[in-house]
Amino acid sequence: MTWSAKQYVAFEDERTRPARDLLAAIPTPAARTAVDIGCGPGNSTELLVQRFPDARVSGLDSSADMIAAARERLPQLRFELVEIDKWTAEGPFDVIFANAVLQWVPNHATLLPALAGKLSAGGSLAIQMPDNLNEPSHRLMREVAANGPWASKLASAAGQRTEMASASDYFSMLRPHCARVDVWRTTYHHQLTGGAAGVVEWFKGSGLIPFLSPLTEEERAQYLQQYLTAVSNAYPALADGSVLLPFPRLFIVATR
Asked: How much is the pTM?
């Protein structure tokens, strides 16, 4: 997949709001070490610095473009180009922050306890994941992929997102390793200008990437036109021309 920091931050306020909500739920009062795994362009890392000003804050991401943007945004911090499931730092960390990233990483039943094992006593693992694979936005991505001339190219695109477990499953994964586990689900309703085109632009920075990356430039244009037509029916414009995008997200804060 090819991530674009520029495309991602086109909706920075909306994408950062869940990170703020996640950060506010962390009970750890102070931190010496905090790491933002899947830091993206550094918007969530910046929040960590504000919340824990005395901590040694760092970030990591698997996208070189995202790491370059994060380093430009926060040149005083250390950012590492590495995949989360290959991250070998042992810690301990007082806060491990994972905002909108673990949905791209497999084997949660192994990964989440391993991350919890990197926490210090009283430290928190804070996770937010989009829980929208069954929303029209993502169902339509799969339908357009399966019903076009690019079907063979995109046969594995949907599988790049990890299937979400249930809230009780995530609780059970983490409770043996942590003293406290909070799990909740919130649906945001983001108002996007430009009607259905705004929805398409939003997902060009995230969910559409596995579907667009394998295609030629001409195929991408055709795919996006078909997707836009389908999205226009699923997300009708409001009177002012904008559209409300329902976006469910799952939150987990596990404290050791």
From this structure: 0.90
